[in-house]
Amino acid sequence: MADLFTQEHDRASDEPQVTHLGHGIFHIKHLASTESCLRRIDEITQEIPMRHMMTPMGYPTKASMSNCGKYGWVSDLDGYRYSERDPISQQPWPALPREFLQIHQSACQLANIPSFLPDACLINRYEISQSMGRHKDKDEQDTSWPIVSISLGLSAVFEVYPDNPEISPMKILLEDGDVLILSSSSRLWAHGVKPIKADLLQPNLTTRYNLTLRRSH
Ligand code: SIN
Ligand code: FE2
Known about the structure:
single chain, alpha+beta, Jelly Rolls, four-stranded antiparallel sheet, globular, binds succinic acid
């Protein structure tokens, strides 16, 4: 964790920059402050440690996970769902930190989409070479609320596979401090994360975090 602090590029001087990639996909650069987000992640994961969850197919997830907010996304042999409690400790999840909600709200404003209150935040941690397979986010009760995701630490190549075969798949480079929004027609499109690569210029940096803010209920 300390490595992420010490190797961090000073984002404070960079202004947020929004790009609409079409189909309701917004890429906002330089929005999240790594240092304050990592502090909050540290506090949350002291209460509910990160773990690999079992998928219904019987394989552990490659990334490790924890949650904050009223609901947490969980997976086991019975399937994927949102739960008000950590299935291991039976504790409610820690509250969604104000910092995460502020980034979420700023992202919605910058993308010019109606803001909404997320009730779930999945925290994914990727070590070098870990990836996330192609999937759709469809465990929410109302899948019309956008997905807002915050990237911290090592960069990732995020792939989006449109439902419409006439639209080419997209590769989006998500760097430290970036926010990605999937809304409107892209909200239910499949997506995944390529294996995380080391950064030769920051050899002590070995981790990527992703915070996915969603309205699950
Ligand atoms: C996810 O789709 O659940 C994770 C996305 C990411 O790590 O950027
Ligand atoms: Fe996803």
